[in-house]
Amino acid sequence: MTRLHKTIMTLLCTMALIISGSTVLAQPASGRIPQCVDAFEPDLTPNPAPALNPRRIFAVVLGPYEFSVPWVFLSGRPRANLHSCELGVNKLAIQFRFNGKVSIPTGEIDYSYDGVGFGNEAPSDLVELQALQFYDRAPQDYFDPSLRYRNTIRAVTAGSVKVIDGLEEIKPGWTVTEGTRWHLATDDTEVFISCDLIDLCTGFLNLRDLHLSAHITLKQHFGE
Question: Quick check: 178 and 164 in contact, CB under 8 A?
């Protein structure tokens, strides 16, 4: 299996773990957790309280869904001395490490990520879910993999389109340095992923049956 194909399949499996009940990141949060108040406001008191356990759980309510997310995985985190509480948001952004050698069916995720390192300094196996959103009828254009796919296919000139293990591989042929696009569509899921030549992949995922759309980034050599 090629490096890019392994990246795509890992991304899809990872998203399945996040959405399913098989991982801590998606277990139902307790209804007893109070609502967060000024969660993202800095603590400006003269003697700020010390940071709390980075693994403490925050309930994140997104449309009809409620996720339990450890503080350390939240991207754009609440202040470090805020106790567990319920966050009402219009998108869920999380980041975590996924060890490609673990058994995906068991829902194993590497919880060693401590929030250190961004961009080029981030771990090579870091998955960044930039935004997971709930939609009523259709995902926003920016998050719609179908729209991105159609626009890419219309623009293919000297490139190529072929199917590898069920995934459409698209090489637009716009420039010599242009990367690769990948597309997969089923009755319930559609994903469009763009991989550039500097080891970065950006994915757009639509889980039609759940009315959830997502924007994800990860490294190409992730999961090797």
Answer: no
Amino acid at 159: G
Per-residue confidence at 201, pLDDT binned at 50, 70, 90?
A: confident
Question: In the β-sheet with 65-70, what is the strand arrangement from edge to edge?
Answer: 65-70, 57-62, 86-88
Q: At residue 30, does pLDDT exceed 60?
A: no
CB-side neighbour CA atoms (13 Å) of 119: 0
Residue range 164-178: mean pLDDT, rounded: 72
Q: What is the pLDDT of residues 32-62, one digit of tens each?
A: 678 898 898 888 888 888 889 888 888 888 8
**Calpha distance 26→32 (Å, rounded):** 17
CA 150, CA 184: separation in Å to the nearest integer?
12
C-alpha 64/C-alpha 50 separation (Å) is 34
Chain centroid offset of residue 90 CA: 15
Tally of CA atoms within 13 A in the half-sphere of 109 that contains its CB = 23
In the numeric block, the tokens 């700020």 are attached to 48
pTM of the model: 0.76
Please choose, from the candidates 85, 87, 88, 110, the residue with its C-alpha nearest in 3D space to the C-alpha of residue 97: 110
How would you class 71 by CB atoms within 10 Å of its CB: exposed for 0-12, middle for 13-18, buried for 19 or more?
buried
**52 alpha-carbon distance from chain centroid:** 25
The structure tokens listed for 56 are 């403490």
Dist. CA 200–CA 23, nearest whole Å: 25
Report d(CA 183, CA 68) in Å as an integer. 30
